[in-house]
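PROTOCOL LOG
Step 1. Enter all chains and additional molecules of the complex.
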Amino acid sequence: MPVQNNRADIRTRLQDLIPKIVLAPSVAAILIFVYGFIVFTGYLSLTDSKMLPSFDFVGFDNYARLFDLPAWNTALINLVIFAALYIAICTVIGLALAILLDQKIRGEGLLRPIYLYPMALSFIVTGTAWKWFLDPGLGLENTMHLWGWTDFQFGWIKDRHMAIYTLVIAAVWQTSGFVMAMFLAGLRGIDNEILKAAQIDGASNFALYRRIVIPLLRPAFLSAFVILFHMAIKSYDLVIALTGGGPGRATELPATFMYSYTFTRNSMGIGAASAVIMLMTVAAIMIPYLYSELGRKEK
Amino acid sequence: MRGLYTTTAIATAAMLMMSGAAMAEDVEVLHWWTSGGEAAALNVLKEDLAAQGIGWVDMPVAGGGGEGAMTVLRARVTSGDAPTAVQMLGFDIVDWAKEDALGNLDQIAAAEGWDAVVPAALQNFSKYDGHWVAAPVNIHSTNWVWANKAILDELGLAQPKTWEEFVAALQAAKDAGYTALAHGGQPWQDATMFDSIVIGAGGAEFYKRAFIDLDPAALNSPEMVEAFKRLETLRGFVDDNFSGRDWNLASAMVINKEAAFQIMGDWAKGEFLRAEKVPGTDFLCFRVPGSEGSVTFNADQFAMFKVADSAVEAQNAMASAIMSPDFQIAFNTVKGSVPARTDVPGDQFDACGQQGIADLAAAAEAGTLLGSMAHGHANPAAVKNAIYDVVTASFNGEYDAETAAEELANAVESAQ
Amino acid sequence: MSVASQDTAVKTGGIAKVFIYLILILFALFYLLPLYVMLTNSLKPLSEITGGNMMSLPRDWTIEAWLSAWSTAQVGVSPTGLQPYFVNSILMVVPAVAISTVLGALNGYILTKWRFRGDTLLFGLMLFACFIPFQIVLIPMARILGLLGIAGTTQGLVLVHVVYGIGFSTLYFRNYYASFPTELVRAAMIDGAGFFRIFWRIMLPVSGPIAVVTIIWQFTNIWNDFLFGASFAGLSAMPMTVALNNLVNSSTGVREYNVHFAGAIMAALPTLLVYIVAGRFFVRGLMAGSVKG
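Step 2. Run joint prediction.
Step 3. Record the structure below.
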């Protein structure tokens, strides 16, 4: 029955094609709106674009000028400090809270949304509240003075060398609860039989977590890292709302730098060059990660 | 090449405008006047146009003294959908005119005689290549001191007339336990003080050479070193908490008798009036000592973008309404600024406003009406921000005065 | 994909428990602090804020600021309050979240159950797309929206949010479906079920938890977005965040902090609601999906 065979053949072929057809719009959108735009930005970084895109080629001038700017170097150093502390502290707090919350706590249903809610708010909303709280004359320091603790000092946001750490505090406030949720989910997914067996062997609680639980949380660590790294790189609202890049330009990050050169300083070429450097940094960290992650799953 | 890019964008805009015939009689206005008083004042303009049958499509984007709005504008022009009129400051107008994106108001300007009533220093921004491209709304002047009169009376201080008297008054206030100078450490606020200081240290002519002509010899000069020294002096009179403070909270310190003085533009007056303080009895306004006779200004204008022929009439009507003396009075009494035309009677303004009008006319006459560096009326955005960087770094103690002057010349050179 | 929601088997003693509660409550206070500042100040008259201690409870309680922020505050030229922009945000966020979630589910389904040469690379490309700094897309995106004729409209905003939401929604669904037994899909194929039938009958019914995670994530990001809303929306499409920014960031006018805070909380209410209502499912969804790798 050759006819039927043929028909079945067409059907299987169609079945093979449907997934690709369904996937195509997403892929096309990503190719145009992400990779197309990245190429466009790369091109702009080689032109003398000022207020609007221009197509006059100037080679690598913008990159040379970019690395001559002290503010750009400050921004890069700030990003390293900020990202390292932010990712580390969020992970530690998130993990600690998840472990504590996992100890058959009464009121978990109340505490969990309290830990999670900051993630729901943008810094356009909470920025002013944070700014006041950190301001020595209005916030914590002043309140402590009013309560009688007159030696209390907390003026980091006004201090050139310390202001970057206040960004870390606010950023940790926003995301650590979310990280907690990820770890909590990981903990709840662990088979209790393993823990019971270890307890019977006489392992202490500390050893239990260090030797068994934390290694089992590897996937949660990785997911948390991807999300935190993505937030660190894109931190923009946070800086604008809290310090505006100050005191001076002490808390400038690459994202704010790029925005200000592209849109307020009318130096689109330099802004594009800084964006390219940012993307290359992301690629340098993410590509090995993706490679190992996706490669691992293949097996 | 760049011209071509914009031209296509504008052509697309024109096509879009034509396809939407219902839009033809509306004006779309991009602005950042969203606070109560400002928006209420702008509403006068909206109603004026409504009476002529012209609709108003509002496009407010606040933030950073128009930075947000300028970003949006770029997206709008690129997408081929430029607004009819855009609130704009100084060099932004020139930059957009260079991109060949602005319309032409010559006809209405000639018919209403704008050339005769708008100060020449302001016309530098309202006109490009000899053609009117923008309608000015107001003139703010930035070299004002706002003082708490009760503190001055208590300490037996008269209104300081010279820099030395001013420093002595600040010292007296500091010794008496007040914050001498209320200030917010944001780059634009630091730069606002610096405007007046530079005039004080070197005079109007020097200011012009340094900030408008960008003469390297003036930027790195003994006068500029003196200006940075004066900035250092002022640094000694602010409280520990100044960094990042909003300007209106600094004003509140003067209002609440916590601080004696604030150097800030005339918009600060609104804060005092709102707190029901009376000029002359509760607070004093006077020019920054050393800068009397000069007025550093910034002016809000509505730049008119190229629109389809059918919309030109509405655009012209809007420009005409902006320049009408009634609107200029209604708007500026609320905003704290003074009218952009010098022939408007001042009797509806309060004491500070009247002094502002008189000072402006005198300065325009004497050629000492100077574009404010801090507010983008002395040099383009890239240069302005480069100057901000140095001024703010110096105010925060990163440079001594000599290094600061050197850095200033370098920064300006590399930003050009 | 066993849904094991029981607590850990690890036992802790009485004194340790007290410490645990203490730490947990301290952190809860830390997280609640900004909300406290916003809430108390939104209930004070303005004079009390500029005149005194901003951290203290109101002396005169008033809800005037809330009323003003909702219906009479000056956002643009007309004193409309945040009310109309709230609607704009809803009109934008609902389709954008729905479309990006559905696309993410389909993509995740294809990338795990209908594998083909190069699918891992494609997924890598999509994932890397999550990291693009949004500032660089403004100008070219504006151009494309203009060419499509949807500049300044809600449709345009929906398109933008869908495009930049695909990366994360695909990531979530892909990781979730990866742990779903492929044998079940194979068996259905042999029984003659087609692509959509399998998706509808087999995959969707088990997708609840991860759908919740994706929806929460997308809803939060899109609702809170400011940059795209400001750049690509005309007045009739202007979302809540842009209106809030206009309320809060006016440059040289008087700052009504109490109204700002009231508006800020108002703007945050929908996301807060989503977190509180769906929060329980959120951890469950994360548990079942994304963190299992």
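Step 4. Note key features.
The mean pLDDT of chain C is 83.
Chain C has two domains: 14-69, 83-292.
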